[in-house]
């Protein structure tokens, strides 16, 4: 039986108090499933949403979260692709229109009518959350729901970003922010896809983790005087591609300098108010490509999940109760998280 009320983390104003309290359990619309969220990853985008630091307003009051893994407990009358008891994943893109020019070409993250979990609608920092049945991810029975949660945003996003780079197996791929949530998965997807991975981040804990996850080299940005020269030296002229998942304008602009000629820089991390400033002479003469990459579509999601299900990537997670979300945001703000925090909604 589905309860009438449930626990959630709610904020009324941007950056305002995160209240752990009872809220009503939502009722699914005709096209929606109601998911009993067991675990939700905590993405740095949730911190941006709470702070309200992007030029896109959130719904207020808001229940954040967009890496939710759980069990379908109810569904609307038009839903034919999920049954009660199925495992489902709630992603950043909760719903799209499927008719605009972008949806027609499967660029659902660019749909102007897309609904975003934990941003334009309530997300997964609650025990029961809604998802559009077309957009919700199908997760195989028997999957560890705490482990799979980060794949639903971090995994999909970095897998898509690596594909977007258009780079080939055997080439060097640098990852800035390699020790964080997206980065720790980017290192593994890149390795599984045949790249030589150069991980950039700081602290010995993140260095150890990145090397264990398959990075060939780790460069500590806080301990390296001339990072551009060091990265070019290690890679014999610069990495062929860079996946920027750091929350640092400085790191992103630096990647334009050390990337190899004819290389590709992919922008994923979204530091507030940041500008990517590419010197035109250098970009033209060195034939550098710069691409932006927002999450992924349904096919990217199922592909990214398949890498996980086959054991090619795993999530380096720390599990805490949903009630401790504030603590997780504080650690994230301080750059102290190696891997990903996942909240257990039952605590
Ligand atoms: O669809 C998208 N484009 C998308 C999807 C999901 C997340 C974008 N994001 C964005 C988030 O909003 C956030 O801005 O990607 C960024 C990273 O998210 P995350 O991985 O969840 O954040 P994290 O776990 O805090 O990791 C960030 C890492 O960057 C490192 C930190 O040490 C941390 O490990 N870092 C920083 I800050 N400065 C650095 C620097 N100069 C750096 N690493 C290398 N060089
Ligand atoms: Zn995210």
Describe the model:
With 347 residues, this protein is an alpha/beta fold. The protein has two domains: 5-153 and 296-344, Medium-chain alcohol dehydrogenases, catalytic domain (Quinone Oxidoreductase, Chain A, domain 1); 155-292, Rossmann fold (3-Layer(aba) Sandwich), CATH 3.40.50.720. Helices cover 27% and strands 24% of the residues. It is built from eleven helices and 17 strands. The protein has helices spanning 44-51, 101-104, 145-148, 154-165, 181-192, 204-212, 227-234, 249-258, 280-285, 298-309, 325-333, and strands at residues 5-10, 19-24, 32-41, 68-75, 87-90, 93-95, 115-116, 128-132, 137-139, 172-176, 196-201, 217-220, 241-244, 264-267, 289-292, 317-321, 340-344. The strands form four sheets. Strands 3, 4, 5, 8, 9, 16 and 17 form a seven-stranded mixed sheet that branches. Strand 16 (317-321), helix 11 (325-333) and strand 17 form a beta-alpha-beta unit. Helix 4 packs across helix 5 (181-192) and helix 7 crosses helix 8 (249-258). The radius of gyration is 20 Å and the shape is globular. The chain starts with a strand and ends with a strand. The mean pLDDT is 98. Residues 15-343 form the Enoyl reductase (ER) domain. Pfam families: ADH_N (PF08240), ADH_zinc_N (PF00107). GO terms for molecular function: alcohol dehydrogenase (NAD+) activity; zinc ion binding. This is alcohol dehydrogenase. Its EC number is 1.1.1.1.
């Amino acid at each position: 039986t589905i309860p009438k009320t449930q626990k959630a983390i709610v904020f009324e104003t941007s950056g305002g108090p995160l209240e752990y309290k009872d809220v009503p359990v939502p009722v699914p619309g005709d096209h929606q499933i109601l998911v009993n969220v067991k675990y939700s990853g905590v993405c740095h985008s949730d911190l941006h949403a709470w702070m309200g630091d992007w030029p896109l307003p959130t719904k207020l009051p808001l229940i954040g979260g967009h890496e939710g893994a759980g069990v379908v407990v109810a569904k609307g009358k038009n839903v034919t692709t999920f049954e009660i008891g199925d495992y489902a994943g709630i992603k950043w893109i909760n719903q799209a229109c499927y008719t605009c020019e972008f949806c027609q070409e499967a660029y659902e993250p660019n749909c102007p009518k897309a609904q975003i979990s934990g941003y334009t609608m309530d997300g997964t920092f609650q025990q029961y959350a809604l998802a559009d049945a077309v957009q919700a991810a199908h997760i195989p029975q028997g999957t560890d729901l705490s482990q799979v949660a980060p794949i639903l945003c971090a995994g999909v996003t970095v897998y898509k970003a690596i594909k977007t780079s258009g780079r080939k197996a055997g080439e060097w791929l640098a990852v800035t922010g390699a020790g964080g949530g997206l980065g720790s998965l980017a290192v593994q997807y890149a390795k599984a896809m045949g790249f030589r991975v150069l991980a950039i981040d700081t602290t010995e804990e993140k260095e150890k983790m990145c090397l264990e996850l398959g990075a060939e080299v780790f460069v500590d940005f806080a301990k390296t005087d001339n990072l551009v020269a060091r990265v070019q030296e290690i890679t014999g002229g610069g990495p062929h591609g860079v996946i920027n998942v750091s929350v640092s304008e400085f790191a992103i602009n630096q990647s334009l300098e050390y990337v190899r000629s004819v290389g590709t820089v992919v922008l994923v991390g979204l530091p507030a108010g940041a500008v990517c400033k590419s010197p035109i002479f250098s970009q033209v003469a060195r034939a550098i490509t710069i691409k932006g990459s927002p999450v992924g579509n349904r096919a990217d999601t199922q592909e990214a999940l398949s890498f996980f299900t086959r054991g090619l990537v795993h999530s380096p997670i720390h599990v805490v109760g949903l009630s401790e979300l504030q603590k997780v945001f504080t650690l994230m703000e301080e750059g102290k998280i190696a891997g990903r925090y996942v909240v257990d909604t039952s605590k």
